[in-house]
């Protein structure tokens, strides 16, 4: 079972996203275990403060190191080789499918959700293994990033998806964007499904899908083409 531990000052944000769809089923099947921990419970003062004014002055508040350290000490007192502590922060490496696959090869992730102006630098320096960002933009906190990461990693864990080919063919899993999809009816308002998909010839269907994947990638994300490891046949197409 793959275990996620999430440290947040707003644990209530996770109730709905983790209680529906694929993530709910994966938990019911005991393929993943998601536990959310309230950092405020580890605050040392009577007011349960998890932030304070920054040394040196400036605007905003900074998340304190002590509550996070105490939370980690209880949640993961011994970190094995297949566990990682990740800080979700705009300053981290940008999350992508390759990172999702790396993390899915572990057995446990502890995710720290940053908030306010920032987080005490001693958390970065001494308590985390990796820093991850969703992209070049700023969110109110790391909670939404944690939800995205849990979803992306979970679907790569064996048996979470009903069809293992679904993850393999997803956009970015092969280094290319995914080919177009169609389902019934075969014609709607004069818009027809490509004839090759109705032919039953799987060799032709696979060839068509590869061509469409290459074309779509070249048109929308051309920078991926250079990283995809194309065959000579692929290069003739693009």
What would the keywords be for this entry?
single chain; alpha/beta; 5-stranded parallel sheet; 9 helices; 34% helix
Task: Tell me what the structure shows.
The chain has 238 residues and is of the alpha/beta class. 34% of the residues lie in helices and 19% in strands. The chain has nine helices and ten strands. It has helices at 21-28, 65-75, 97-104, 121-126, 143-154, 164-169, 195-198, 202-220, 232-237; strands at 2-8, 32-38, 51-52, 62-63, 83-94, 108-113, 118-119, 130-133, 187-188, 191-192. Strand 1 (2-8), helix 1 and strand 2 form a beta-alpha-beta unit. The longest helix is centred in the C-terminal third of the chain and has 19 residues, at 202-220.
- State the distance separating the first and last CA atoms: 42 Å
Oligomer classification: single chain
* Proportion of helical residues: 25-40%
The pLDDT mean sits at 92
Largest sheet: 5 strands, parallel
Number of strands: 10
Give the strand content: 15-25%
Q: What strand line-up does the widest sheet have?
A: 2-1-6-5-8
């Amino acid at each position: 079972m793959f275990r996620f531990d999430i440290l947040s000052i707003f644990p209530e944000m996770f109730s709905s996203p983790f209680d529906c769809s694929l993530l709910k089923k994966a938990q019911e099947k005991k393929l993943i275990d998601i536990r959310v921990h309230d950092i405020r419970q580890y605050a040392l003062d009577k007011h349960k403060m998890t932030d304070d004014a920054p040394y040196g002055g400036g605007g905003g508040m900074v998340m304190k190191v002590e509550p996070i350290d105490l939370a980690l000490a209880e949640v993961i007192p011994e970190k094995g080789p297949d566990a990682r502590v990740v800080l979700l922060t705009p300053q981290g490496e940008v999350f992508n499918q390759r990172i999702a696959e790396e993390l899915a090869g572990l057995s446990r992730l502890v995710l720290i959700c940053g908030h306010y102006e920032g987080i005490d630098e001693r958390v970065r320096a001494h308590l985390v293994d990796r820093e991850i960002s969703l992209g070049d933009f700023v969110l109110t906190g790391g909670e939404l990033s944690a939800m995205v990461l849990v979803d992306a990693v979970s679907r790569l864990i064996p048996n979470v998806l009903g069809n293992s080919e679904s993850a393999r063919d997803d956009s970015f899993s092969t280094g290319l964007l995914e080919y177009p999809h169609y389902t019934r009816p075969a014609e709607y308002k004069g818009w027809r499904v490509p004839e090759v998909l109705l032919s039953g010839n799987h060799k032709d269907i696979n060839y068509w899908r590869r061509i469409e994947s290459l074309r779509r990638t070249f048109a929308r994300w051309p920078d991926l083409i250079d990283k995809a490891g194309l065959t000579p046949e692929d290069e003739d197409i693009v």
